[in-house]
Amino acid sequence: MPFSTLGLHDRLLRGVRELGFQRPTPIQQDALPPALAGRDVLASAVTGSGKTAAFALPILQRLAERPGGTTRALVLTPTRELAAQIGDHLRAIGRYTRVTTTSVFGGTSLGAQERAFRRGVDVVVATPGRLLDHMRMPYARLQGLEILVIDEADRMLDMGFLPDIRRILERLPPARQTLLYSATLPPPIVALSRTFLRDPAMISVTRPQATATGLRQAAYPVPAGLKSALLAELVRRGEVRSVIAFTRTKHRANRLADFLLRNGIAAGRIHGNRSQAQRTQALSGFKAGSFKVLVATDIAARGIDVHALSHVVSFDVPASPADYVHRVGRTARAAATGDALLFVSPEEETDVRGIESALGQRLPRRTLDGFDYAAASARGLELRPRWQARPPRAVRPRASRTAARGAARGPARHRRRAAAASVGR
After folding, report:
1. Which CATH superfamily is domain 215-388 in?
2. Does the pLDDT value for residue 255 go beyond 80?
3. 102: helix, coil or strand?
4. pTM of the model
């Protein structure tokens, strides 16, 4: 069915058309009718399936009917990047309405966010921690809230936000519509939903560990120390046009990005130790095509929408099958196609079998024709794991160095210390 059959305002339909949306995705088709009717919704769908529009359109439809002056909708989301992206999406769809939106997250000015609250912005998209910072102050009034959205609820649970969410819920008016969207629905999320959802419409358009239908997946067996050389070679050959490479740790992300830069490949990086300005600059540069590789930890695995992203590389095998699904969801979004490559060292085969079991399929193994592992190692193209670091240089005992410096300087107390150290050796 087309969007025009849903009873949306003409101004919203115009915004939808200009974004290139023709027909609702499966999650939108199932979730929009009850959400537009004012019902609570508990929805699960694979990442990249269009969940944002599934809650953005009901918010804009409801708020466009009456003038604002107070915050009437709140969207909670786990990461800064996702909060910024959802805010942009709401503004794009509602560009022909008078609904105002602001994003509230850490690493940016508290003052600008405070002014938005005082003006009575219609929609607040926030991360839980920063929202709680504001809610301690009298200007962050949410008594007029009509719609609450909890997005990426399972990721909220993984990141330890559940206590923060409970504190926020305690301060919101109970008479409201609540929409909970998630890529998966683990038991703790289902249990939480029972405490604040009222007779929700239950929607699940895919099994928990499914991936997008347009996704092509493959695993590349490769020694841990040569993963970086393999990625660099794939980029040089043009096998990948644009790629997000996921690492397990911030340290690994920095080392991989530095390695690529040293070898003439422009790369950006996103992880928790980067400032918000650095993270925003890296994502903007990647979207603009300033560099082909964006190195990221799993902080970027949820909700980041990069148009026409060709590849996702799991440089390190993720800790859980759910993390793998969220990573690869960055490509093949909204019925597009894309490739997901998994670099697998011998030590990671057990984790890969767990992913394959959850997916219900074996990932095909590939090798890169003409890639000379021995030559790559000889050219120094290794990114050694930390446990394979070069051995430290031999160091003389501290006392010997101190004694030698003292003897060279000449004062009597240093000469005595040098003589004593010499006898001690």
Report:
1. P-loop containing nucleotide triphosphate hydrolases (3.40.50.300)
2. yes
3. strand
4. 0.68
